[in-house]
Design goal:
- Among the domains are: about 40 residues, no CATH class; about 60 residues.
- By secondary structure, it is mostly helical.
- Helix content is about 60%, strand content about 5%.
- Helix 6 packs antiparallel against helix 7.
- A hairpin with a 4-residue loop joins strand 1 and strand 2.
- It comes from Plakobranchus ocellatus.
- This is Craniofacial development protein 2-like.
Length: about 160
């Protein structure tokens, strides 16, 4: 039997273009030491260097704003919106997103808002009709019927943060 401590590849720490690779037998202390050294010696890309070049306040503000927005999009993941109601479809969610983007244009916003309302009403009515049919089919079996009713009244709660 061979101890992993005696296998060179398992104890090795390699620095490549893609990052740092640790062998399976590298201790946590050694990992911490290598990572701290890498962080200290890593070149920092300063996105705010452009602020020094701009002379006007407006240009400085635009450079600062773009640097913050770029950093935010790199670091904070975009969270996909999830339907809060069981009857909402992907089409409704897409229309809602389109409506959100059209807030500056009142006519377009109102037009999309009407579409969203129509789609929501139709989808909800279809969903309720479908649930009623299920309940009618299960009315001979009381436990299944009550379970279907209970599930139809539940709401999905999703609280997520995102940009």
């Amino acid at each position: 039997m061979v101890s992993p401590a005696f296998v060179k590849e398992l104890r090795e720490v390699k620095t490549t273009d893609l990052g740092i690779q640790f062998g399976a037998s590298v201790t946590l202390t050694d990992m911490e030491k290598h990572l701290r050294l890498a962080v200290q010696t890593m070149p920092v890309q300063n996105k705010f260097e452009a602020l020094k070049d701009a002379e006007e306040v407006e240009q400085q503000w635009e450079n600062f704003k773009s640097a913050i927005m770029e950093a935010a999009t790199e670091v904070i993941p975009k969270v996909k919106r999830k339907a809060k109601q069981k009857w909402m479809t992907e089409e409704i969610l897409n229309l809602m997103e389109e409506r959100r983007c059209a807030k500056g244009n009142k006519e377009k916003y109102e037009q999309i808002h009407k579409k969203v309302q129509e789609k929501c009403n139709m989808s909800k009515e279809n969903w309720i009709n479908e649930k009623c049919k299920e309940i009618e089919q299960q009315r001979k079996h009381a436990p299944q019927c009550t379970e279907t009713l209970r599930k139809s009244q539940e709401r999905e709660h999703s609280y997520q943060l995102g940009v």
